[in-house]
Design goal:
The termini are far apart. The protein has one domain. The chain contains seven helices and five strands, in the order αααβββαββααα. The longest helix is centred in the last third of the chain and has 29 residues. The strands form two sheets. It has a three-stranded antiparallel sheet. The chain has 232 residues and is an alpha+beta fold.
C-alpha cells in the first residue's frame, strides 16, 4: 500500500463504454460482452457483506471524489490519505462522469490505490469482503443501481457478481443514488474552483490541502535545507 506512487497509473482499467455528456442516470456502463451472470435480488441485508467476491474491487479502477475520501478519513482515526488514495492520469476516466483535476496543467482524477500484492482496493480484506462497507465510496454504494430521468430505480441486468445483488429496497436505493448525484455536483464545483485558481501551478499536495484531505503540506527537506543556508 505504501509503495503506490501519487501519480501511478492503474494496471488495467476495466472495459467500459464511452458515455458522452454529463448524464446523472449513468453511474457506470460496462461492456456487455464482459458480463457473465444475471443474478436475482436478495432480501438478506447481510448477503453483500458476507458473500461478495470483490471482483469490482480488483478488476476495475475505483475512482472516487474528495467527499468520498473525507468520509473514509473521518471514519478511520489515524489513517493518512495517501494510504488509500492516489492520482490517476485523466485517460482512466472514460465515462465523462468525474471532473478532471488540473495538476500543474496536466489532467488527473483521484481513486483508490491498488494493493501492490493483490492488485485490489486496500480495504478489500483477505476474506474477499469490503472493510469499509458502511462508509465506502458512492460508486461502490450505488453499484449496480441508478435512476432513470423519472427517478425510477434501474440496474445493470448482467454483471460480474457471483450470485446475488444487495437487497432491493427501492427507497433506500433512491436515497443513496440521489446523495451520490448531490456529492458529484459538489465535487465538480470544488474541482472547477481549484482548476481556475491553481490548475496551472498547484501540485498533488496542494489539491489535497485545498479539498481538506490534508491539513497542511508535508515538510520539504530541500526547502528546509535552502532556508537554513539562507539564514547562514
Amino acid at each position: 500500500m505504501d509503495k503506490a506512487s501519487k501519480s501511478e497509473k492503474p494496471s488495467t482499467p476495466g472495459k467500459t463504454l464511452d458515455v458522452k455528456g454529463d448524464d446523472h442516470s449513468v453511474l457506470e456502463k460496462i461492456d456487455p460482452e464482459a458480463h457473465v451472470s444475471s443474478p436475482p435480488l436478495t432480501d438478506n441485508p447481510f448477503y453483500c457483506v458476507q458473500h461478495c467476491s470483490g471482483f469490482c474491487c480488483s478488476e476495475y479502477t475505483v475512482l472516487i471524489t474528495a467527499i468520498d475520501a473525507k468520509r473514509i478519513l473521518d471514519s478511520i482515526p489515524g489513517i493518512h490519505v495517501y494510504q488509500f488514495l492516489t492520482f490517476y492520469d485523466e485517460s482512466v476516466e472514460t465515462l465523462n462522469f468525474y471532473p478532471i483535476i488540473k495538476i500543474k496543467g496536466n489532467g488527473h482524477v483521484i481513486g483508490m490505490i491498488q494493493d501492490a500484492k493483490h492488485k485490489t482496493c486496500p480495504f478489500h480484506t483477505a476474506l474477499g469482503l469490503c472493510g469499509i462497507h458502511d462508509f465506502s465510496p458512492m460508486v461502490c454504494q450505488t453499484y449496480p443501481f441508478s435512476l432513470t430521468e423519472d427517478h425510477e430505480v434501474t440496474y445493470l441486468s448482467r454483471v460480474k457478481c457471483g450470485k446475488l445483488f444487495p437487497p432491493f429496497n427501492e427507497e433506500r436505493i433512491k436515497k443513496i443514488v440521489l446523495q451520490s448525484w448531490k456529492e458529484i455536483d459538489e465535487y465538480k464545483d470544488m474541482v472547477k474552483k481549484w482548476n481556475e485558481k491553481h490548475g496551472t501551478d498547484g501540485d498533488f499536495d496542494d489539491f489535497l490541502v485545498f479539498t481538506g484531505l490534508l491539513k497542511e503540506r508535508p515538510k520539504n527537506e530541500e526547502d528546509e535545507d535552502g532556508n537554513e543556508d539562507e539564514e547562514e
